[in-house]
Design brief:
- The protein is α+β, with helices and mostly antiparallel strands and about 350 residues long.
- Among the domains are: about 100 residues, no CATH class; about 110 residues, TolA/TonB C-terminal domain (2-Layer Sandwich), CATH 3.30.2420.10.
- Helices cover about 60% and strands about 10% of the residues.
- It is built from nine helices and seven strands; from the N terminus they run αααααααβαββαββββ.
- The strands form three sheets. The chain has a three-stranded antiparallel sheet. A two-stranded antiparallel sheet has the order 1-4. A two-stranded antiparallel sheet has the order 5-6.
- α2 packs antiparallel against α3 and α4 packs parallel to α6.
- The longest helix has about 70 residues.
- It starts with a helix and ends with a strand.
Length: about 350
């Protein structure tokens, strides 16, 4: 037989088989799609209706969550009955100790081949995963971790667990970032308040210093004026007997001959306090100080004792009236200023 004829025949056969293969594959795909929409998906909806809703539908709110039950003391039939009741009430994973997954898992622990529990866990898994996702979105992280661990006991290889764990980690990081941002804002507000308080204190201190400097300048000017007046009133040099006779009957004010500087109080010196004291006293006919008392002081009761002690040791040339020494009342201001 001619080999060329066989080769051509085989080529024609392969060419004719290719459309057949493609047609078979297309039919299989169409059957799979039809099975999804006509069989599997309606079955899921039926299960959801029996369970009480769609996985994305939140469980019906109740006054209080059912209390945990004594799972160890229940039979397999009791566990299945409680699991069915929990499914209808959408208690897939919560509350702890009284939910469908824990009941079904306990059934499988006692009867590893129980088909009812296995099918129920498999069919309910998407609803339970949706409930766990809602718990994550509510940022109840401890409860969400417990529910994810419960899902892992039912199907440890399910890819949904990876997604849920990733979402849980992301929500935790987001919450940490929000809390850190809030702490940063509070810290910035605190620093701003401290800075404002410090600026206010600095401004008040500067104003007080300026006021004190102005008062010191005024006191210094007044003291200088008093010194000039005292210099003008200083007695002339001793005159001959003839001049003394001519000076008979003179009138003048008391003049300071000996001045003792006051002692600066130690406490005020350490505290950096400055001030002044105005003292009223009487210069008697002998030029001695009598009845010294504080008229005014700034600050009060800080330099009073030192001022009076110094004034009592002053000596004066007594005041004269018509050539006769007389007592006179005098007021003097004594400054207390730290050396710069």
């Amino acid at each position: 037989m001619d080999t060329r004829y066989l080769y051509c025949a085989r080529s024609r056969a392969r060419g004719a088989a290719r459309p057949m293969v493609l047609a078979v594959v297309a039919v299989i795909v169409l059957l799979a799609i039809a099975s999804w929409f006509l069989v599997f998906r309606p079955h899921q909806r039926l299960v959801a209706a029996d369970a009480g809703g769609h996985p994305s539908t939140p469980a019906a709110a109740s006054g209080t969550a059912p209390p945990p039950v004594n799972v160890e003391g229940m039979s397999v039939n009791d566990l299945l009955a409680e699991a069915g009741r929990a499914m209808k009430e959408q208690r897939y994973l919560a509350p702890a100790g009284n939910n469908a997954f824990e009941f079904y898992l306990k059934v499988l622990q006692r009867q590893p081949g129980n088909q009812v529990a296995s099918d129920a866990l498999r069919e309910t898994y998407p609803f339970a995963a949706s409930a766990a996702e809602q718990t994550i979105n509510q940022r109840n992280f401890d409860e969400a971790q417990r529910e994810i661990d419960l899902l892992a006991k039912a199907d440890p290889t399910n890819f949904t667990l990876t997604i849920l764990r990733s979402k849980l980690d992301a929500q935790r990081k987001t919450l940490d970032q929000e809390q850190q941002k809030l702490l940063d804002q509070q810290r910035q507000q605190q620093l701003a308040a401290q800075k404002a308080a410090a600026d206010k204190a600095s401004a008040e201190k500067l104003a007080a210093q300026q006021k004190q400097q102005a008062e010191q300048a005024a006191l210094a000017a007044q003291q200088k004026q008093q010194a000039a007046q005292a210099a003008q009133q200083a007695p002339p040099p001793a005159a001959p007997a003839a001049d003394k006779a001519a000076a008979a009957g003179e009138t003048r004010e008391a003049m300071l001959l000996k001045q003792v500087n006051p002692r600066y109080p130690t406490a005020a010196q350490r505290a950096g306090i400055e001030g002044w004291v105005e003292v009223d006293f009487t210069v008697d006919a002998d030029g001695r100080v009598r009845d010294a008392k504080v008229a005014r002081a700034q600050p009060r009761h800080v330099f009073d004792h030192s001022a009076l002690d110094a004034v009592n040791r002053w000596r004066f040339r007594p005041a004269m009236r018509n050539g006769k020494a007389v007592a006179a009342v005098v007021r003097r201001r004594i400054l207390f200023k730290l050396r710069q």
